[in-house]
Structures are given as structure tokens and as C-alpha cells.
Design a protein that fits this description.
InterPro entries: DUF3606 (IPR022037). The protein is an all-alpha fold. The chain has one domain (about 10-60). It has 4 helices and no strands. It has helices spanning about 10, 20-30, 35-45, 50-60. The longest helix has 12 residues, at about 50-60.
Length: about 60
């Protein structure tokens, strides 16, 4: 999800670990807990593609 709903698709490629709803959405999307989601987002920064790949690897 984009942090700023007025921004274009470029912002949608990013994930924010500081927004609770972003972490919750990311965790639910990948079937992982919030702590793992925060750790992945912290490790991969705001790059949603890299974070998605890491979450998929974690899930196995």
C-alpha cells in the first residue's frame, strides 16, 4: 500500500515499516507474523519486490 494515497504507482512499489497498517497488510498478505514482517521490511528497506521475495522464502 502506498503511504500517500495521492502519489502514483511509484509510491506503491514501496513498503513502510513505520506504518502499522502497512506491516499488518504485509504480514497478512504473506501469512507471516507482524514481527517477521517488520524484520523483513527493515532488512530490505522500502523495496516491496525484495521484501515480497524474502517473505515468500521465509514462508517456504
Amino acid at each position: 500500500m502506498a503511504d500517500d494515497k495521492t502519489k502514483t504507482a511509484a509510491d506503491r512499489r514501496l513498503v513502510s515499516g513505520t506504518q502499522k497498517y502497512e506491516v499488518a497488510y504485509f504480514a497478512k498478505k504473506h501469512g507471516i507474523n507482524a514481527a517477521d514482517a517488520r524484520r523483513i521490511i527493515k532488512q530490505h528497506g522500502s523495496d516491496r519486490d525484495a521484501a515480497d521475495k524474502a517473505a515468500n522464502r521465509l514462508k517456504g
